[in-house]
Write a structure and sequence with these properties.
Shape: globular
Strand order of the largest sheet: 4-3-5
Strand content: 5-15%
Order of helices and strands: HHHHEEEEHEHH
Number of strands: 5
CATH topology of the largest domain: Arc Repressor Mutant, subunit A
Helix content: 40-55%
CATH class of the largest domain: Mainly Alpha
Number of helices: 7
Length: 163
């Protein structure tokens, strides 16, 4: 979860982006953006809609999709396709890069940073005369729950809910 000062700064940045695009700064846009900055985790549009339910007036999923797309365009959100049928998004504060481990069964996402990997990527870019701007490293496998217990934590919760 971002600190209050960071949330305020990011909301200002988003408002400035909207102004540059000659788009209105609406309460819905600011409400969705604020919730995104508060989350501090990967989310889908459905999980974001669920997180916004406690707010005044329901915001449609279509509106949330449009706002999230604007936030991706503004550079404040990163969109991920982890090989699943749904897209994940995350707010990454400036200079806080990380990579991902993704469970192929339950979709659990673990973040990690390995300085040696970052160094190797820069060396490769230099070797091939590239100015590296960004990269994405996603490793796919089975989470510790699937490996140790034969089922994932989320899958077990879903099964318990169905019973």
């Amino acid at each position: 979860m971002a600190a209050t000062a960071d949330i305020h700064r990011e909301l200002t940045n988003f408002s400035n982006f909207l102004k540059r695009r000659n788009l209105k700064i609406t309460n819905q846009r600011l409400l969705v953006a604020e919730k995104v900055f508060e989350l501090g985790t990967h989310f889908t549009v459905d999980s974001l809609a669920e997180a916004l339910k406690d707010r005044k007036g329901e915001i449609s999923r279509a509106t949330i999709y449009r706002i999230v797309s604007l936030m991706v365009e503004s550079g404040q959100l990163t969109e991920h396709n982890f090989g699943q049928s749904v897209k994940y998004y995350e707010y990454i504060p400036p200079r806080e890069h990380h990579d991902h481990l993704v469970c192929v069964d339950c979709g659990r996402i673990e973040e990690f940073v390995v300085p040696e990997i970052e160094k190797i990527q820069l060396e490769i870019a230099t070797k091939y005369n590239f100015d590296l701007e960004d990269h994405s490293l996603n490793l796919y496998g089975k989470c510790k729950f699937l490996k140790e217990e034969g089922h994932c934590e989320r899958r077990k919760e879903e099964a318990d809910t169905i019973k």
